[in-house]
From TrEMBL:
Region (Disordered): 929-959
One GO MF term attached to the UniProt entry: ADP binding
Domain Disease resistance protein winged helix: 451-521
Name of the protein in its database record: Disease resistance protein RPM1
Boundaries of every Disease resistance R13L4/SHOC-2-like LRR domain copy: 571-932
Domain spans labelled NB-ARC: 189-364
Stretches assigned to coiled coil: 25-59
Family per similarity comment: Belongs to the disease resistance NB-LRR family.
Keywords: Coiled coil, Leucine-rich repeat, Nucleotide-binding, Plant defense, Repeat
Length: 959
């Protein structure tokens, strides 16, 4: 992993610099007098280096000298980028043309003003050029290996083998007399998938994070007495690197049953070592066509590996079965019959304890003195069997089981992974998935260690930070954000991170990284100076680095008594302080002159004075002040010319100054705050908006604005329609009945955005309600629409939105025909009706056959109009989550839930009628999916039965 890290970090640094050098050569020609040739030569030298780095990315077994060389390349690139950025920052203070003079005279004056700056730049560039040549010469002088001629990933197999032996021991470690610890029920579930149906041949995939026990589960299923009628069977490990011929031989030797007493001449596999690869298909067909077989292909990494192997297994009529274990959802989807995928879950806390105690104490109990520290260790293990077994073994080997020693192990798991032989093999297994990533994704994955342990990493901010750091490689036809979305989805698919919040349309909006994987990438990041850290632990201070490039201060982190001085921080380009309650002593924002990324989410100590200092950081590209205590943004924010993202959500900021309109590179402007009613965030309500000044039309790069208060911002509403790049718009209006002119101005601008908008949220809250005439043109490519309050949109307006995936309506008083129109939309995935969102004489809400064909989420928040019945009578067949808040149960109840065959969860929130909960839970018990029932609210007063507390999450089978 070390080498892969250095390659990805080094190549990323050089790639970013090459772009800047090319840009400055093209645009600052006149100001480069005397240094243009030096910059061009430096650029050429680094281009050659990056080509070499790209070749090295295909290898994992470089010598120590080669790794040092790659780190030197990275440091040269970082220092060169710092030099160029400082030069450009000073140029911003001395523009090339003086508007009060003729252009020629203006250029002369500018050249004179920057003469000293250019002389200093020439000296620095010459020094950097000399360093770059020295690095190149060093590679030749020490005869470092020829990257282009080296074979790819020659050490992958040995790495896999050394770790795989440990994983193969898990079945015995998890054994517990009566069955596998925490896996006996899972064995029955997988056996049930294999035995279900009459398919000629069924393939079931077991997918999950490395170390979850996929191999253990597959072994248990393979040996299950429930499958004793299988005529022949085989179990083989495929792995990342495999030899097809050897694997086919191994499989065939297990599958072919040779009768006792068979002579060598008559042996069906006689001469197998001499067979050509083209002979194997016929051999497999001959031996398996008339037999019922069971094959386990363990640890399949790519769809291509499955495609090659699948050709050898005949689809006979004997109900044969194949089990595939994989870390990658993409592989699972390619393999499985009719989406027969079993997703591995982490062990439950009680099973984790049982497994840990059996390994350490050889019993099911823990001494009282070690109970607290055992709980802390198990929290880090987070239900991962491989980690529990590995750490348990290490502790079991220690003669003296002293709490203080165990606490030290818990704090120092990162270093222990590298130095303790028992944990080293586990670390190798966990890094296999990282090593398998494409080179351009490696730095993005390492970047996750910037966030605190157990932190819910939000998709959008993460991608915007990747872009600001320069980690996302541009691709023709795609924006950086779209490419970043693909990166994030790749991590989910590869089981490298655990999904968190799921959006209305099924997209993963947040994730978490396993504590032990976090330890692995944190340790490696520190080694290679990719990221530096400060936290509450006494041992996590970064040492030995002259220049800190990225710094993450975790909750409890302080710079006091750590030996830090300002010289350590002058090269910092990324600073993360999330959820800190106290300002770190040595932090002076004005000193971070090279900072590109600043994330201060949840830092309640942040003051308006701090923000004035932050506005001096002219290179900032990403600034998050989310959930801080700031109350105003200074006019000096206009100096942040490079700013792309500004996030002040959850703060007291009520308006922006005129200076913000100078931010011509700003794409994402996020304000306002939400109240969430469910932990899944399926139900939320916007609380506030902000005032925007005139001059909005100058911010031509804006792609997202959330959330504008139309009434406060009425002077700029006529400019809104000039933002042709705008794709997301969230607005709120609180106008009185007698004053609708401001609303009408907004509507005119909105009509100009009909071809660009993809996400639109309008909350129109009035002192009184009456029909209005809005004349809003339909945004033809709209993906998500939220409407609150009276907005006059005819139902046929919705029918033209073929891309619409999410609709939310609150007190809009549309007619019942809206249900009919929305039900015909081919791609609608989420539909939410809040508080009488439908005005109708109908007393029944019926989801009829062939309506809402793709709907996955439905929210019904007290739809009081439908007093007689809410029923699913053949429609919404793909519904997965049903969210309900019902004050008064319809007279004929809610029916048809048992017909929602893909239902996975029913959420109750707000007012909860216990009788309805009981009815739904009874249905859920009999449902084929056993959907989870979640209660997040309070019982209604007229119910005698007390509902479960909000914190409880009940499964119907346990109710």
């Amino acid at each position: 992993m070390e080498t892969a890290l250095v390659v990805s970090a080094s190549q990323g640094a050089v790639r970013i610099l090459l772009g800047k050098l090319g840009n400055i050569l093209a645009t600052k020609y006149a100001l480069l007098s005397g240094v243009r040739e030096e910059i061009q030569e430096l650029k050429d030298e680094l281009e050659s280096m990056t080509g070499c780095l790209r070749d090295l990315a295909d290898r994992d077994d470089h010598s120590q000298q080669t790794r040092i060389w790659m780190k030197q390349v990275r440091e040269v690139a970082f220092d060169a980028e710092d030099c160029i950025d400082k030069f450009c920052r000073h140029l911003g203070q001395h523009p090339g043309d003086d508007p009060g003079l003729a252009s020629y005279l203006g250029r002369i004056i500018s050249l004179l003003r920057t003469m000293g700056l250019r002389a200093k730049l020439a000296a620095e560039i010459t020094g950097l050029q000399s360093r770059a040549k020295g690095v190149s010469d060093r590679r030749v002088r020490y005869r470092l290996e020829d990257a282009a001629g080296a074979g790819p990933r020659s050490s992958s197999k040995s790495l896999h083998s050394s770790g795989y032996n440990l994983r193969r021991l898990l079945p015995s470690e998890l054994g517990g007399g009566s069955g596998l610890v925490g896996l006996d029920g899972r064995t029955n579930e997988v056996v049930g998938l294999l035995k279900c149906g009459e398919a000629p041949r069924r393939v079931v995939s077991i997918v999950g994070f490395g170390g979850l026990g996929k191999t253990t589960l597959a072994t248990a299923v393979y040996n299950s007495p429930e499958l004793c009628d299988i005529q022949c069977r085989a179990f083989v490990a495929v792995s990342q690197t495999y030899d097809l011929r050897s694997l086919l031989e191994s499989l065939l030797k297990q599958l072919v049953v040779v009768p006792a007493g068979t002579s060598d001449d008559n042996h069906p596999l006689r001469g197998i070592k001499t067979w050509g690869i083209t002979e194997f298909p016929d051999k497999y067909t001959k031996h398996l066509t008339d037999k019922r077989y069971l094959i386990v292909l363990d640890d399949v990494w790519t769809p291509a590996a499955w495609k090659y192997l699948n050709e050898y297994f005949p689809k006979n009529e004997k109900q044969s079965r194949i089990i595939v274990t994989t870390r990658t959802h993409d592989v699972a989807r390619n393999c499985s019959t009719h989406d027969q995928i079993y997703e591995m879950k982490h062990l439950e806390p009680e099973d984790s304890e049982k497994l840990f105690f059996r390994i350490v104490f050889e019993s099911d109990e823990c001494p009282d003195r070690l109970q607290e520290v055992s709980t802390a260790i198990l929290k880090k293990c987070n239900g991962l069997p491989l980690v529990i077994v590995s750490i348990g073994r290490m502790l079991a080997q220690r003669e003296n089981k002293i709490p203080a020693d165990w606490q030290k192990v818990c704090r120092r798991l990162g270093p222990e992974l590298e130095t303790n032989p028992t944990l080293e093999a586990m670390g190798r297994i966990l890094t296999l998935s990282y090593n398998d990533l494409p080179y351009n994704l490696k730095a993005c994955f390492l970047y996750l260690c910037a966030f605190p342990e157990d932190y819910e990493i939000k998709r959008g901010p993460l991608i915007r930070r990747w872009a600001a750091e320069g980690f996302i490689a541009a691709m023709r036809g795609l924006s950086l954000e779209e490419i970043g979305q693909n990166y994030f989805d790749e991590f989910i698919s590869r089981s490298l991170v655990t999904p968190g919040v799921i959006s209305d349309t099924g997209k993963v909006k947040s994730c978490k990284i396993h504590d032990i994987m976090m330890e692995v990438i944190t340790s490696k990041s520190v080694q290679e100076n990719f990221m530096s850290f400060l936290g509450s632990s006494e041992d996590n201070i970064t040492a030995g680095h002259d220049k800190i490039r990225r710094l993450s201060i975790h909750p409890g982190g302080t710079m006091e008594n750590k030996g830090f001085t300002s010289q350590y921080l002058t090269h910092t380009r990324s600073l993360t302080i999330i959820g800190s309650t106290q300002k770190p002593a040595a932090i002076t924002f004005s000193g971070f002159t090279l900072l590109r990324v600043l994330d201060l989410e949840g830092c309640l100590w942040l003051s308006n004075q701090d923000l004035k200092d932050i506005c001096k950081l002219s290179l900032l590209s990403y600034l998050s002040l989310r959930s801080t205590s700031i109350s105003e943004v200074p006019n000096a924010v206009g100096k942040l010319k490079e700013l792309v993202t500004l996030d002040v959500r959850g703060t007291s900021v009520a308006e922006f100054p005129r200076g913000i309109t100078k931010l011509q590179n700003l794409k994402h402007l996020m304000t306002g705050s939400y109240q969430y009613y469910t932990r899944s965030r399926s139900v939320k309500h916007l609380l506030t908006g902000v005032k925007l000044p005139r001059g909005l039309q100058n911010m031509c790069a804006l792609q997202r604005i959330s959330t504008i208060d139309i009434n406060k911002s009425f002077r700029s509403m006529d400019e809104l329609g000039d933002l042709s790049q705008l794709t997301r718009l969230y607005v709120v209006s609180h106008e009185a009945v007698e004053d609708t002119s401001r609303w009408e101005t907004f509507v005119k601008s909105l009509n100009k955005l009909s071809s660009s908008l993809r996400y639109l949220s309008i909350q129109r809250l009035k002192l009184a309600c009456q029909p209005t005439n809005d004349y809003i043109s339909p945004p033809l490519f709209l993906h998500s629409l939220h409407l609150c309050g009276r907005v006059s949109l005819p139902p046929n307006w919705f029918s033209s939105l073929s891309d619409l995936a999410s609709v939310s309506i609150r007190e809009t008083y549309f007619g019942a025909e809206l249900i009919e129109v929305l039900g015909k939309l081919p791609g609608l995935l989420s539909f939410k009706i809040y508080a009488s969102g439908i005005e109708s004489t109908e007393t029944r809400l019926c989801f009829e056959p062939d309506r809402f064909p793709q709907l996955k989420q439905l929210v019904l928040d007290n739809p009081s109009n439908f007093s007689e019945e809410i029923s699913f009578c053949g429609g919404a067949t793909n519904l997965e989550r049903l969210t309900l808040s019902i004050v008064k149960v319809p007279s004929r109840g809610i029916s048809g839930i048992n017909d929602l065959l893909k239902l996975r969860e029913v959420e109750f929130f707000g007012s909860i009628v216990q009788s309805l909960v009981n009815t739904v839970m009874a249905v859920a018990r009999e449902h084929q999916n056993h959907p989870r029932v979640t209660l997040e609210g309070q019982p209604t007063e007229d119910q005698s039965t007390i509902a479960q507390p909000m914190e409880d999450q009940l499964r119907p089978e346990a109710a």
